[in-house]
Amino acid sequence: MTAEPDAVTETFAFTCGDCGHTWERTFKLMFFTDPGRPDIQEYVDENDEPLRSPLAVAVCPRCGSRAVQVSSPKPDSGTGTDGTPPG
């Protein structure tokens, strides 16, 4: 595999279908290449820890529900990664 994988930053907006809580979170999507093998994509969190796709395993930080919808982030939303105002 390559020593330095390519990476892009992706931000997603989440809405809980049970309690209505909304939040945004930013992830890095790493692209690994290895000659002769299919390319590998891996999401990592803000601590560079690998995780499953946030689109598949989203859990509401307020109520713990898995009834979460994912969408594109709102421009200039002004919220932190957990859905609270920064600061």
Automatic annotation (TrEMBL):
Region of interest called Disordered, as start-end residue ranges on this chain: 66-87
Biased composition (Low complexity): 73-87
The protein's name: Zn finger protein HypA/HybF involved in hydrogenase expression
Provenance organism: Streptomyces pseudovenezuelae
Organism taxonomic ancestry: Bacteria, Bacillati, Actinomycetota, Actinomycetes, Kitasatosporales
